[in-house]
Amino acid sequence: MNDRGGNETGSSPGRRGQGKLEAHVLSVLKGAAEPVPVAWVQERLGGDLAYTTVITILTRLHGKGAVERERAGRSFVWTAVSDEAGLAALRMRKVLDAEADRQAVLASFVTALSKNDELLLRELLAAEPESDEPPEPTASSEEDR
């Protein structure tokens, strides 16, 4: 349950979880060929959201770095700079940044992954270009060899 009495899956009539709504707005915005005004986004969302709600969501997405805005007269036009996967990654990064022991959080996250997700993560890490700085050795990295 969310704090508004609905649930996060959006099954309550007229209510959607904030994350789902942000993802939907971002998806609509991603389909724009050029920067667009709030009314354009609102229209493509199906019209059941208030104009001010769409502005609030876009402003939150801007604060997260998922969209950019530029002045157009007295208002703004909006452009997606991230997709839904990027938005999820931003949320994960925010959680990680809020914790003091990054290593413990990452270790807990990795150990909770399914075998398929762990393999995928290993493949993604192996495909990343090498950085100029070597990683700091840890006790767990010695065990992995």
Automatic annotation (TrEMBL):
Residue ranges, compositional bias (Acidic residues): 129-145
Cited Gene3D superfamilies: Winged helix-like DNA-binding domain superfamily/Winged helix DNA-binding domain (1.10.10.10)
Key word Transcription present: yes
SUPFAM superfamilies: Winged helix' DNA-binding domain
UniProt keyword list: DNA-binding, Transcription, Transcription regulation
Region (Disordered): 125-145
Single GO biological process annotation from the record: negative regulation of DNA-templated transcription
GO molecular function: DNA binding
Pfam family for this entry, one: Penicillinase_R
Claim: Transcription regulation is one of the keywords in the record: yes
Top-level taxon in the UniProt lineage: Bacteria
Family note: Belongs to the BlaI transcriptional regulatory family.
Name of the protein this chain belongs to: Transcriptional regulator
Organism encoding this protein: Streptomyces gardneri
Lineage: Bacteria, Bacillati, Actinomycetota, Actinomycetes, Kitasatosporales
